Amino acid sequence: MTKAFTKTDVVIVGAGPTGLACGIELQRRGIAAILFDKGCVVNSLYNYPTNMVFFTTPELLEIGGIPMTSMGEKPVRAEALKYYRRVADHFQLDVRQYEMVDRISGEDGNFTVHTAKGDYAAGKVILSTGYYDRPNFLNVPGEELPKVIHYYKEAHPYFNHDVAVIGGKNSAAITALELWWTGARVTLIHRRAALSDSIKYWIRPNIDNRIRNGEITAHFNSSLKQVTPQSIIVETPNGELTIGNDFVFAMTGYRPDTEFLAAHGITFDPDTQRPYTNPDTLESARKGLYLAGVLVAGMHTNEIFIENGRFHGGLIAEAIAARLLA
Hints:
By secondary structure, this protein is of the alpha/beta class. It has 2 domains: 4-134 and 254-324, FAD/NAD(P)-binding domain (3-Layer(bba) Sandwich); 148-250, FAD/NAD(P)-binding domain (3-Layer(bba) Sandwich), CATH 3.50.50. Helices cover 23% and strands 24% of the residues. The chain has helices at 17-28, 43-46, 77-90, 170-181, 204-212, 258-263, 306-309, 312-324, and strands at 4-13, 33-36, 94-96, 101-107, 110-115, 118-127, 148-149, 162-166, 185-189, 217-219, 223-227, 231-236, 239-244, 247-250, 289-291. The strands form 3 sheets. Strands 1, 2, 3, 4, 5, 6 and 15 form a 7-stranded mixed sheet that branches. A 5-stranded parallel sheet has the order 7-14-8-9-10, covered by helices on one side. A 3-stranded antiparallel sheet has the order 11-12-13, with no helix packed on it. The radius of gyration is 22 Å and the shape is elongated. The protein starts with a strand and ends with a helix.
């Protein structure tokens, strides 16, 4: 079967909020773009916990000048999904959902983007793939068991089960609380002496009180050593513990797909662990290939969110317009 061949000005890899913002800003400058995502529009947000509440207000999630509203002070996942669908539809962005980009060949002005469905010629490429697809693995025996979960969705299936939550930041705290509220028996395991200071102020008292009252068992300065079908082995300051367990939630964060980036000429500063980019244009070390969103921060994934990554679209579009329309 012969694959299709399509030409466009710019290919955007990733159709999250930042990728959509890039597409909108290019469109406003008269530059055609095709967006690709291996999943659905804003696929990472779709995979967030079902009952997730954003840590920000609606106006800070807006792109393209389209107002966002929410029932409460902070929007929830369902409201964000609806909003970004509306935005993509309003601007009639050319989003190719469920079409993964396998590789990018060629050079500035003459790139070819290869997918299973076709090859696409483009003058410029923007990578806006985020980091949520790559969990930070625990690298312990038994992690491959299906009971180990890196993406928490909702608590109901774990009622009346023994569960362990690994981590000490917002995701771990919220996961532990929701599981406990739903009737799971929760053990929290964190490698540091206390939960992170970055836990949001409206969450912190609740998790602290549950731990203080013994409703959630917490092991600090501790680490998971092994997972078995019926239990987990935990290294604690008082020695090794074997704890009965049905499910493990590894809320240990995520990282960019460094293998894909390296294969396409994106290099990292070994000292800062950030990719080399031009701060004025966000062009990478590979000429004609730009980075947007959290990729700009490299391994520092807690620095760029929708609130600040959405502005990358205008910066990159202006740089591309200066070259393509010169």
